[in-house]
Amino acid sequence: MEVLPLLLIIFCLLATGQACSPNGACGCCGCRAKARARAAKTNDAEMQVPSPEDDGNIFGLSIWNRTDLRVDQETLPLLTNPNHLFHRCCEERALPKACRQLCHFNAYTKQALEDIYLGHSECPLEFVPEIQFCSAQGMDQRKCCVESGVGESLAGGKCVLFCDQTPDKFTPVDHSYLPCVEKLEPMKRCFYDGIGARARQHFGKDSRGIEEF
Fold first, then answer.
1. Model-level pTM?
2. Tally of CA atoms within 13 A in the half-sphere of 59 that contains its CB
3. Residues in domain Domain of unknown function DB (predicted)?
4. DSSP reduced 3-state for 122
5. Residue 142, CB half-sphere, CA atoms under 13 Å: how many?
């Protein structure tokens, strides 16, 4: 299989879910966030209902609005762990088990995406956009991506668009975005650092009155 079509299809999937565009074209960025994942029809994972602040529809991010969480020095390390929040989002969006195994920043790699497309992974291709959304927790990390050189590719600044996983956006994508695949790692670093910083502020002293570590 030629590398060009393979990587283009993978990155189109990273950019959007099939329902984002009326014509089914590839796009970016946080599309379909305000909808249950396609796996929600199964009982593979328990779905949690987000708070009204999320408009009741942004599945995967309910932990940010829960008021019944016990937050102390025992639970804070977990609540501020980007990998925990990444995986929890995938569980809440009811992704299949094989896909949830990729919901960790060390497991979500370019090689993993290629394995999915080539059929070497049990994670269905259609769930890649769900993983991408959860990896960013629906955040806009374009500023970090610019500073990290994500825009320094043959695609220019276009790659930075993929750092914005704000729910339900759509931007058409074509083959000119292909070089952005090589920028997945710095994107992930921005997502990881951004999630950690936000979680420490949200669950830490500023919001709960307890000391951060």
1. 0.75
2. 22
3. 89-191
4. coil
5. 12
Alpha-carbon dihedral of residues 157, 159, 160, 163, nearest 10 degrees? 180
Cα separation, 203 vs 168, in Å, equals 26
The two structure tokens encoding residue 114: 């290629």
User: What's the rounded Cα separation, in Å, for the pair 198 and 73?
Assistant: 17
Q: What is the pLDDT of residues 144-189, one digit of tens each?
A: 999 999 999 888 888 998 899 888 776 666 778 778 888 999 999 9
Of the CA atoms within 13 Å of residue 50, those in its CB half-sphere come to: 21
Task: Decide: 101 and 87 in contact? Cβ < 8 Å.
Answer: no
Both tokens of 190, joined, read 């921005």
Measure CA of the first residue to CA of the last residue in the chain; give whole Å: 49
| 55, 59, 64, 68: CA torsion to nearest 10 | 90
> What are the respective helix, strand and coil percentages of the chain, to the nearest 5?
50, 5, 45
